[in-house]
Design the sequence.
């Protein structure tokens, strides 16, 4: 197995185990991946592990990603600019506009996801 292209750790928060595994497979070519399947797993990971970026589904069982995003905004605000939310709800766009890096709508195109995550680590002055 080859080394990731970027020396960055991306946490995927997805309660659907099949999707989580698929996102892991797609992104682990370029990044070190940590996977959380619930809000509590995600919170523990954020508190105990250095995370460079977060890709989170909005609906996570009986809770939603508001808990994670609010925690990031309060405790690690620098991580908000490297947080991507995946959702099927358009109101999440306005709720998090200018607070996080991006909102991607499901079904998520895998190339778009990979490019969007990679763009989180390109200096602003080099982005098109």
Sequence:
């Amino acid at each position: 197995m080859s080394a990731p292209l970027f020396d960055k750790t991306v946490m995927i928060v997805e309660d659907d185990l099949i999707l989580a595994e698929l996102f892991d497979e797609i992104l682990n070519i370029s990044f070190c991946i940590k996977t959380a399947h619930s809000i509590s797993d995600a919170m523990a990971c954020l508190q105990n592990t250095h995370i460079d970026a977060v890709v989170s589904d909005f609906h996570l069982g009986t809770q939603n990603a508001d808990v994670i995003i609010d925690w990031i905004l309060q405790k690690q605000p620098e991580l908000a600019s490297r947080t991507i939310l995946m959702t099927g709800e358009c109101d999440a766009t306005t709720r998090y506009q200018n607070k996080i890096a991006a909102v991607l709508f499901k079904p998520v195109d895998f190339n778009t996801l990979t490019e969007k995550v990679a763009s989180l680590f390109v200096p602003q002055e080099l982005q098109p």
Observations:
- The mean pLDDT is 89.
- The beta strands are 9-13, 32-36, 53-57, 59-60, 63-64, 83-87, 102-105.
- Residues 9-115 form a domain with the Rossmann fold fold (CATH 3.40.50.2300).
- The CA atoms of residues 36 and 42 lie 5 Å apart.
